[in-house]
Amino acid sequence: TGKLTVFCQMILRRLIAIFTLFSVVMAAISGRTDAFTKKNDSKEFHIVRNNSAVPIIFDKNDAEVVGICANALAKDISLITDIIPGIHNGEYINAPSAIIIGTIGKSDLIDRMVKEKKLSVDKIIDKWESFILEIIDSPLPNINRALVICGSDPRGTAFGIFEVSKRLGVSPWVYWADLLPEKRKELSLEIDKITMGPPSVKYRGVFLNDEDWGLQPWAAKNIDTDIKDIGPKTYALIFELLLRLKANFIWPAMHPCTKAFFYYKSNPQTAKKYSIVVGSSHAEPMLRNNVDEWKNNFVTEYGKQPGEWRYDTNSDEIKKYWEDRIEEVAALNLEAVFTIGMRGIHDSGMPGPDNTKDKVELLNKVIADQRKLISEHFKKSPSEIPQIFCPYKEALALYYAGVKAPDDVTIVWADDNHGFIRKLSTPEEQKRSGGSGVYYHLSYWGAPEDYLWLCSTSPSLISYEMTKAYQNGADRLWVFNVGDIKPAEMEIEFAMDLAWDINSWQPVDAEKYPEEWAAKNFGINYSGDIVKIKNEYYRLAASGKPEHIDKLNFTEKEMNERMTSYKEIVNKTMELKRRIPERVQDAYFQLIVYPVLGAAYLNEKHFYARLGKYEMSKQAYEKIKELTEIYNKKISGGKWNGIMCMNPRNRPVFDMPDSNSHNDKKELTVNKRKPIKIISVNELIFDTTKLCLLPGLGVGGASLSWINFTDRSFDESNALQAPGASVRLNLPKGKRTVELICLPTHSINETRGLRTAISINGRLVDIVDVNTPSKSAEWSENVLRGFSRTKTDFILDEDGMVDLHLSLLDPGLAISKIIIY
Ligand code: REL
């Protein structure tokens, strides 16, 4: 039934999507001016008609974010129609029709409609970030008809406003990717009463990281030009983007090139205005950016040099430093989530005792002291102030060794920096009142290698990992490392859509996301091609991200195949570019042309060099240079000057090739044995009640996995009862080896592995486990090449047909390919 429900939901959603797209197209063809086909006269609300726009009304006592978003909606409407609605935020006005916006309990207009039973808010009242959109007749005296946007809280109202924008055809990326809406003379919205929220994940947002080559120089040159930094004007743009994406949370930029978020007093004030919740990364406990505040600003703040960043020797000074930030946050009444615990000044282990036992003891003391400070300064029980503990990198080992996150603290599990979550809560940990969340990378600086340039993490992988996390209780906070934001636009939107509604995209259909996204943004005429381009781009990156290509081994045949595949999507991209409407040409360049061509040329640059074709390699390098120049200088009237860097951190992978490049020694091991069969997962016959094929996942283009990540319905003592997959093969006699190629996931938690029982002709041959400890050499290979592998031998006494059966013993195991040697 579970699978059936998922399947039915999927079909239903597809049908709705097809109907919606069809409606938009029909509307366009027939010259209609409303965003969605009219079903029923009484539900159509005219926003702009006969060169005039309905006014937008909200209560001046409502939260500041409501006014900010109401103004943004007015601008969105004028972007479509060239007519700007009047905004009224005080008096009751006379109008035949109006857009009325407000928050329950903060807006007299809303409260009056509720009291007079014009508006029923039962479904959202007291709920987190929920909203209603409804067309109401005679909502208030002197207004005949209104589109009412009503939020359960200020962010709920903001999300409701931007939901309207979206339905009118304005993308969340209208500013950040120049996705301009189609012009119309008249504009109307047809809706039944819509109720949305609460979101699946309570806090959802982004970590601006490694901003040195994009966001920081761009902001300094173009936005916060007075301070030459990422400052309040840039944050205002980012916060508006977050609200449009229905996100609410940020870990601000924190690299040495950027001043600490709290350094500019107007940064936290801007967050407050936009109602964005502020946190700080895993390396910045208590909202303190140590790189700037401990190392640079300490003298100005405290009139002396700081002592050592060691809690065992300098706790008083460190405590005072934390205490002052708590006071600042409390005085500002800023909505914040405190990261507790301690690491090094930047992204390193906590300095202090060498041995694990003492480290654990010290970290537990740090946490206890931090909570005492929080409680004292907020004059509340610490359980009332949101806190997270993020066992990132070495901190996970300390957690395993005994660091305790107090019960009300949210544990934010991290991925291995390469998109595979290292650990999720055990059933026991899931009982904690603070619950859990996830810190996940779409961009990364560090070992075994960065990927700071493009974003090639597919919706399929994001959905697989985050759905697994959600099913294991990670619903309190999701934070995505998005690098410079660009060019990770679609992937960010996907992540936020999923965080808002975990059922919106299942791992089984996430591969379709680019189609729906492209139809909304570019039009249905192009979405079929765009989804093919995007999915091929992800497929190629699944076996080697562009930024890792210099570290990978490919045979000559594989290199040529990859180049051919890239050429095909480059051609398709450029052919489509000729047809894409002028209005979204700049957006198309940012969202499709640059990443696709960039990835293709970086592959070419390396492969041609390895094949000894130095001139062609050089040409590919020059093309990347040219594309980057176009991005920074030519498109959108030069708006993106400084945002795109073709060689972040000057990694060798980005270098101009030299004529010796073909002598390059790669670091990964080469498989010398010749396979006698390669079996794709599509050839398997499997238990469809428990397992499913996930397209777009893994190196084979699809992977076989459990559907439900918490299923415990089989008897683990009998491996052959586990959900299984079989294939019949004709094999020659002798010693044979079966190799499983799997997605390099980690076991769900320490109580599980990633085991497969392999049987030949009904006889159990072996139980193998592909779980690989993070940071091992094997793990480094796995994440760069996109798979983990395990092998087992068996003997065949005679030639002939053989039944190979795989029993998948653990959730989170995803088999991408089977090879027989
Ligand atoms: O991705 C991460 O969380 C870390 O790599 C970062 O915290 C760190 O700032 C990294 O960018 C290196 O400086």
TrEMBL record:
Claim: Hydrolase is one of the keywords in the record: yes
One record GO biological process: carbohydrate metabolic process
Keyword hit for Hydrolase: yes
UniProt cross-references to InterPro entries, sorted A to Z: GH115, GH115_C, GH115_sf, Hex-like_dom2
Top-rank taxon, per record: Bacteria
Keywords associated with the record: Hydrolase
Residues covered by the Gylcosyl hydrolase 115 C-terminal domain: 695-820
PANTHER family: GYLCOSYL HYDROLASE 115 C-TERMINAL DOMAIN-CONTAINING PROTEIN (PTHR37842:SF2), PTHR37842
Name of the protein this chain belongs to: Gylcosyl hydrolase 115 C-terminal domain-containing protein
Source species: Melioribacter roseus (strain DSM 23840 / JCM 17771 / VKM B-2668 / P3M-2)
